[in-house]
Amino acid sequence: MADPENTAIIIVAAGRGTRAGGDVPKQWREIGGRSVLARTVAAFAGCGRIVVVLHPDDMARGLAEFAGRVTLVAGGASRADSVRNALETLVSAGISRVLVHDGARPFVSSALIGRVTDALASAPAAAPALRVTDALWTGAGGYVTGTAPRDGLFRAQTPQGFRFPAILDAHRAHPGGAADDVEVALAAGLDVAIVEGEEENIKITLPGDFARAERMLKDRMDIRTGNGFDVHAFTEGDHVMLCGVRVAHTKALLGHSDADVGMHALTDAIYGALAAGDIGRHFPPSDPQWKGAASHIFLAHAAAIAREKGYGLSNADVTLICERPKIGPHAIDMARELARIAGADPDRISVKATTSERLGFTGREEGIAALATVTLVKS
Ligand code: MG
């Protein structure tokens, strides 16, 4: 999506959701081990600044779940009040576009988000919808009382996208009571473009929707593999940093940061699995603030991006290639340290080593090379 800096996403989750049953509001109920709302928020990772509107009673819970990742706003008496509260918090934020999305639609795809955003280039408002294809009836008392034409009828979805100043003015001028933001936009005379919605973009509303959501999750599991490779040359010194562990040695590794070759390979493997570039893109060597930086900053950053996007680290395998120092005595500590920094289970991280039989630059002890493979799973 273009220009995430100028885009805000308002996720409306202030309702009490009693129609879905259960003893907690539907946005906090879990599907596949994560709350509906956490999944919805993750669907917009990287799309822009995220504002989540919560019921005042849910603010503490929201802070616990989303601290530092999203802006939390207390909702109002109605959905329209909630959206307006969120819009008002963005007035000085330099936002040019805003998407308003239901917190109970966790299956929104990045393709759908992209279609809404793209449409805002040529219309002040755009929203996804599906054409009604079933016949429509009226009914009463258990009997069909008539038929209704379905021509030109659409089922509305979210995210509904707007140019920011236009929807802000529309909400300020609206008398209240609108079912959604398209209604507010229409009342202000804005043209609303229809983009193609998706059947999977369901709004979890009724008890049966949770079972359907669980089935959809099984079909959507996303498994990603990434690899990383790094080399650092030896220089004079008395220790090396390898996978976060200081190992005494007759040389040091040369690098802009602390030259932790193993941690760099693992970090790049995670970025690679996410198609999110590499260490050099996120922490440019030309930027003096990263000179001598501890490499755990890089690994923690990559792991945080994975988490934001909803991926868990299923496993990682790091191989260090060197004649010396001996890695074996430190391998378990290294794996434990990598797991701690990445927020992963220690038994899912492997660190092992090999020599290159005295061949090549590692064999001549000119430097150390490292390989890493990771698997990330989103479910
Ligand atoms: Mg490196």
Describe the 3D structure:
With 379 residues, this protein is an alpha/beta fold. It has two domains: 4-220, Spore Coat Polysaccharide Biosynthesis Protein SpsA, Chain A, CATH 3.90.550; 222-378, 2-C-methyl-D-erythritol 2,4-cyclodiphosphate synthase (60s Ribosomal Protein L30, Chain: A, 2-Layer Sandwich), CATH 3.30.1330.50. Helix content is 30%, strand content 29%. It contains twelve helices and 19 strands. The protein has helices at 36-43, 59-66, 79-89, 110-119, 164-173, 181-187, 207-220, 261-273, 279-282, 296-308, 331-342, 360-363, and strands spanning 7-13, 30-31, 34-35, 49-54, 71-74, 97-102, 125-131, 136-140, 143-148, 154-156, 160-163, 192-196, 222-236, 239-242, 245-248, 251-253, 312-321, 349-354, 367-378. The strands form five sheets. Strands 1, 4, 5, 6, 7, 10, 11 and 12 form an eight-stranded mixed beta sheet that branches. The protein has a five-stranded mixed beta sheet with strand order 16-13-19-17-18. Strands 2-3 form a two-stranded antiparallel sheet. Helix 3 packs across helix 5 (164-173) and helix 8 runs parallel beside helix 10. Residues 230, 232, 255, 261, 264 line the site of magnesium ion (MG).
What would CATH call the homologous superfamily of the largest domain? Spore Coat Polysaccharide Biosynthesis Protein SpsA, Chain A
Oligomer: single chain
Overall structural domain count: 2
Tell me, rounded to a whole number, the average pLDDT.
Answer: 94
How much strand?
Answer: 25-35%
CATH class of the largest domain: Alpha Beta
Number of strands: 19
Q: Please give the CATH architecture of the largest domain.
A: Alpha-Beta Complex
Could you give a short account of the major beta sheet?
Answer: 8 strands, mixed
Fraction of residues in H or I helices: 25-40%
Query: Tally the helices: what do you get?
Result: 12
What structural class do the secondary elements suggest?
Answer: alpha/beta
- CATH topology name of the largest domain, in short, is Spore Coat Polysaccharide Biosynthesis Protein SpsA, Chain A
**Any idea what the shape is?**
elongated
Bound molecules: magnesium ion
State the end-to-end distance.
Answer: 23 Å
List the uncertain runs: none
Alpha carbon gyration radius: 26 Å
